[in-house]
Amino acid sequence: MSAALLDAPAWAGAVEGLAPVGLDELVATAGLLARVDRKYVVPLPVVAAVVGRLAGVRVLEVGGRRASAYGSVYFDTPDLACFRMSAHARRRRVKVRSRTYLDSGVAFTEVKTRGPRGLTVKDRQPRAGADDALGADDRDYVAGVLRARVPSDGALRPVTLAPVLRTTYTRTTLALPDGARATVDLDLVWRTPGGTVACGVEGVAVVETKSPGGATVLDRALWRAGVRPSRLSKFGAGLVVLDPSLPAHRWCSTLRRLPLHAA
Fold this sequence. Notes:
By secondary structure, this protein is α+β, with helices and mostly antiparallel strands. The protein has a single domain (3-262), classed as Hypothetical Protein Pfu-838710-001. It is 29% helix and 34% strand. The chain has an 8-stranded antiparallel β-barrel with strand order 2-7-6-5-4-8-9-11, surrounded by 4 helices. α1 runs parallel beside α3 (44-53). The longest helix is centred in the N-terminal third of the chain and has 14 residues, at 3-16. The chain is globular, with a radius of gyration of 18 Å. This is VTC domain-containing protein. InterPro entries: CYTH-like_dom_sf, VTC_domain.
């Protein structure tokens, strides 16, 4: 039996012991479309123990479910302009993706940019469908966001955007008592757009805290447990895993610690 299967009950038990929070309340109190993100790669028993010891944490519950399946398709230019912004830590960075909540089929076109003081800013609008294509309305939306957020960057033209990466994972969302929130992602799988090559991550959680600025109670609890933030972009690291010829220096230390397997 794999380590992931052995460790899963501990995480499931920690989640089951939390009080629920509804989606409307979570969005109203901790929507945080402009936020500071911190990411961690954490063994499942560790994240279960840390979350289980924190007082006042609630878990998003929708339709009786405390975990949801997510799927994303990332778009980039033929010369991978978005990837290179991330790989070389440009001050201005852009990610364009579709985000589908697989349990409901609800989908959005999303544009993530880096704002002042290192804030991550996410703009999004509903999509008519969950396919891999960017329709004319999606491209117009992306163009408008780019004009507003990064008006001086002419390297990214929405008309040239095409699918370059697919991701799937299972997400649990936590409302933290300090008004921040966190996500815990399991079973992450990266795929080429056609799905011919895939690689998964097993036995660890990708934890992301999202706050208006300072460290959250979960950040501090992870630090006390000896867990430090990791450089990890699902988009950038996923492209590197599937194409090792791409520059990986920003994520090398994290990728060496990820338990990767063929999916």
